[in-house]
Structures are given as structure tokens and as C-alpha cells.
Amino acid sequence: MELGKVLNKEQEAKNCLADFATKIAEKKQALSDVIDSGKKIAIFEITGKELYLYGKSYGRGGAILYDELGLHAPEKVEKAAFEKGWASISIEALPEMLGDADYLMLGIRGDGADQGKDILSKSVWKNLSAVKSGKVYQYSIDDFYFQDPIALTYQLE
Asked: In this predicted model, what pLDDT tens digit does every residue of 5-45 receive, in sequence order?
């Protein structure tokens, strides 16, 4: 709404927000069996040197998944990453942090391609419940990095 005021396009901003709310409602309905069942989803990212978990406020789709769609992360992920927006973890912590996740959103930064291949080949990764059940969804870092209206709409789709 602030951009709409600045650009003297308040009605267009209202229409944009109303359209977004409609899309959110449609996606919530489509995901109602997942949301209502209490399934857990975590956002995990691999870089060249670090492994990260993300919460609601640091991009990577967290605002859509957790705030808009009402999905939840495993309790340990929420404790570790939600207050600050992110948390750095070790490979040894994967079972503890991601073991309760029914779904995983996976991002691999360009500089993390080699480390990503290495981690994804290890049993510590392969034994995660979400991995075993084929519920890992890789996201594009470029498309899921930010939380602006255009990015959020794309992430929702």
C-alpha cells in the first residue's frame, strides 16, 4: 500500500493485494489436507561452506509457506531459525533438525554445487524421512531469495 500511495496508484495496490489474497485462499484450499494434517515443512539451503535453515522472515519462501499458507516447520527448526530468520547448522545436525520434516524445500547456491552433491549422496541425507518419501522440492535461489510482491506471487505459484 505504501508503494501505491507514493506512486499515486492506491487502487491498483488494493487490487493487487486483493488478487494476492484470493490466490492465497485458493492455494490454502488446495493444500488443506496437508495443512490440516499438521505436516511439517523445512527450508534448507546449501552453500559453498555453510548449511542453513530458514524461517519466516529471511526470504526463501518462508513468508509464503509459514505466514500465508499456515504451514509449520518442525519444532527444532522453529526454535533454531524463526527468531533470527535463519540458522547455520552442521551436516551432523541434519537428522536432529530435519528428521521430523515431512517436506523439505532445498536450495543450493551456485557456490554450493559441489558440497550439495556431496551432502545429497550421504546416508545422513538419504535417511531423512522427507528424502525417503520423495518430498524434497528444490527451489531456485534467484527466485526465492526475496520477499517483494513479485517474488512472493511467483513463490506462491
From this structure: 999 999 999 999 999 999 999 999 988 887 778 899 999 99
Whole-model pTM? 0.87
Q: Give the contacts of 71 (CB within 8 A, at least 6 positions apart).
A: 31, 34, 35, 39, 40, 41, 65
So where are the chain's domains?
37-147
Does 37-147 carry CATH code 3.40.50.1980? yes
**In this structure, which amino acid lies at residue 73?**
A
Alpha carbons 52 and 62: distance in angstroms, whole number: 13
**What's the pLDDT tens digit per position in 125-153?**
999 999 999 999 998 887 777 777 888 88
DSSP per-residue codes, 11-71: HHHHHHHHHHHHHHHHHHHHTHHHHHTT-BEEEEEE-SS-EEEE-SSSSTTHIIIIIIS--
- Grid cell 534448507 is found at 44
Handedness of CA 157, 24, 41, 78 (dihedral sign): positive
